[in-house]
Specification:
Strands 1, 2, 3, 4, 5, 6 and 7 form a seven-stranded mixed sheet that branches. By secondary structure, this protein is an alpha+beta fold. Strand 5 and strand 6 form a beta hairpin. 20% of the residues lie in helices and 38% in strands. The protein has a single domain, classed as Nucleoside Triphosphate Pyrophosphohydrolase, CATH 3.90.79. 30% of the residues are buried. It contains three helices and seven strands.
Amino acid sequence: MMVEVVAALIWDDGRFLICQRPAHKARGLLWEFVGGKVEKGETKKQALIRECREELDVTIAPKDVFMELVHEYPDITVHLTLFNAVIADGVPQKLEHNDIKWIKPNEIRGFKFCPADKKILERIIEAGETHKYTSIHSFKKL
């Protein structure tokens, strides 16, 4: 069974937000992007906005798709859509995660991420710090 999952690549001033999964969940204590399953009747962007509100207590502005991929875990197969996003309102809170951090692309290798994120992280490293979305202000200029 394929599960539709969305996640946010949230940028702020050359850094992006990563979240550490709770210890008691599958893939516990691995790092990931904020997000979750798309519920029945939701668009991907609606699901992402809801997940960010539930998990971080922020309102995000999702933009274009950074990357899509399918990953098979032993217990689940996910179709992951990762959106570029910025925070429109609020400051990220640890409502569900063990920890949250803002990191630069050159710091990625210092964290152990969920296997599904491997290709995404390689692309972020390749793009380096030349990412076009550095803050909410850069969206307004586009």
